[in-house]
Amino acid sequence: MKTVENNSTILLLFKMELEDGTEIESNFNDDAIEFEIGNGSLTPGMEDALIGKAAGETVSVELSPELAFGMPDENNIHSIPVTDFPDDMPPEENQVIAFDGPDDSEIMGTIISISDEEVQVDFSHPLAGRIIKFTANINAIL
Q1: Residue 47: what are its φ and ψ, rounded to 5°?
Q2: Is 14 in a helix, a strand, or coil?
Q3: Which residue has the higher pLDDT, 28 or 87?
C-alpha cells in the first residue's frame, strides 16, 4: 500500500483550529487541495503527522507552536511611519494586513501598537506562539 513520504504529492482535506476550538481554516466543505510534502507548504508538524499514512486515512494532532507556526520573534517587529498608511485605512491594533515584501511578494503583519508617529508591526506568522489542532484526510497520493 502506497503511503505518504517526503516529496509525495497528496490531495488533502484539512482543518486547523486554535486550542479553544476556534476554526482558523478548513476545506472539508470544498475540494481537496494539492500539497507536496517537504516543500514548506505545510508546517513540519503537519508533515510529520501525514508521513506514513495511506490514502483515505484521517489524522488529528495537536501541534506545539514549534511544530506549527513557530514562536514570535522580536526581531520581526518593525516600526513603520504612521504616514505610510492611507488616510482612508487608518491602522488598528491587532489588525493583520498585507505589506509589500521583496520580489513583489506579500508579507502579513500584525499591528501591535500605534503612536502619533509610528506603528509597531510584528511580521512573525499571525499564528506564531499558538497551539494548533490539525485534522486532515488524505484523499489521494498522486
Answers
A1: -60, -45
A2: strand
A3: 28
Average pLDDT estimate for 18-43: 97
Amino acid sitting at position 7: N
Q: What is the pLDDT of residues 109-129, one digit of tens each?
A: 999 999 999 999 999 998 999
Residue 76: count of CB within 10 angstroms of its CB: 16
Confidence of residue 103 (pLDDT cuts 50, 70, 90): confident
Domains, the chain, in order of start with CATH, read 9-69+128-141 (3.10.50.40), 74-122 (2.40.10.330)
Residue 77 binned pLDDT confidence (cut-offs 50, 70, 90): very high
The answer to whether the CB of 97 falls within 8 A of the CB of 126 is no
DSSP letters for 44-76:
HHHHHHHTT-BTT-EEEEEE-TTTTT----GGG
Q: How many C-alpha atoms does 67 have within 13 Å on its Cβ side?
A: 13
Using the 8-state DSSP alphabet, how is residue 1 labeled? -
Are 51 and 4 in contact by the 8 Å Cβ rule? The answer is yes
